[in-house]
Each structure stands twice: as structure tokens, then as C-alpha cells.
Predict the 3D structure of the following.
Amino acid sequence: GERMNEEPKILASISGGKDSLAALITHIESGGRCDGAVYCRILFDDETSAEYPKHEDFLFNKCLPTLEREYGIKTTIAQQSYTYVERFNKVPQLFSGFLDFLSVVFPFIPSEITLLLTFGVVAVVFIGIIKAIRR
């Protein structure tokens, strides 16, 4: 219906760093359109941002207000309900079956080496995915 005829929105992903801001401002000042920006906020734990406090202060008190005031760009802050620490603590659960498999097949390998092997396999899989995406 009507929604199919709407022009797609153009959104910019920004970190609040010099590169993303320079790219966005250059795009706008050279006549480009931007319907909004998205900043992905990551929390290390329940109380601590993964960003340096000075960067968060700059971002929320200078950068985002200036983008809205000077360029009319409102920024949506995307933030998951879970933290980095919560996800990191789940990694052993995700690979526990694989660790059990390795300990049965290679009972002579110390558990520390088995864990390193698991992370090595994860890295190889990740690299394979990246290579497949780049094709």
C-alpha cells in the first residue's frame, strides 16, 4: 500500500568519534540527505558504559545536541537490555558441549589447552564467515 511508495529513510550510524561525525557532516554539507542518526550504546555492566566517561559526556552533552540543533538530525540511542559481562559469562555455556567432546576425545590434553582450542575453532569459524560475506 502506501508504505511501499514512501521514500526509504537514510540513517547514519555514528559513534561520536571524529570519523563518523566528519563523514556525516561532510555528507550533509555537500547536499546529502540524512533522516536521522543511530548511536549504539554498549554497557559493560549494569552501571558502567563501555565508553570512556569523557566521551559519553561529549556525546550526550555536545555532539548529539549539536547535530540536532545545527543540522536537524535526531539521534536514536540503541541499547540492548543485556550487558557485555552478561554475554561474556555465557560463552562457556555455549561451548560446554564442545569442551566435553574434546575432553573425551583427547583426555590427555589439559583443560586450559582445550579451552584455547575451543576459542581457536571459534576464531576460524568467525574468519570463515567474514570471508564468505566479503565474496
Observations:
- The CA atoms of residues 29 and 66 lie 15 Å apart.
- The first helix runs from residue 2 to 5.
- The chain has a mean pLDDT of 81.
- Helices lie at 2-5, 18-29, 53-71, 84-94, 96-105, 111-134.
